[in-house]
Amino acid sequence: MSKICEWCGGNRIVDSEQTVYWELPDGTRAVEIENTPSIRCLDCTMEYQEEALIKEIEDQLFLINTKLLPKSITHAELMQQPRILKRNYFDFSDL
């Protein structure tokens, strides 16, 4: 089953990696996240992250000490940061 673009509905999409900028949960600053898994649509040229990955990044930012993050980090490095909490207790989407 082929994937379709979430923006235009086209089916010519490819996996890519992008640099993205994410605001920290406390709103104090944003961080640059390099090599973030992304989708690129060859029809509409939109580049985006899938919802599951967005949730993964946001959960990780809630679970780590963001004060220790540098201004720029790779996606892999971000996901390897030690967690302070075991889960995101502020996520009520599963209820």
TrEMBL record:
Pfam families: YokU (PF14122). It comes from the Bacteria. This is YokU family protein. The lineage of its organism: Bacteria, Bacillati, Bacillota, Bacilli, Bacillales.
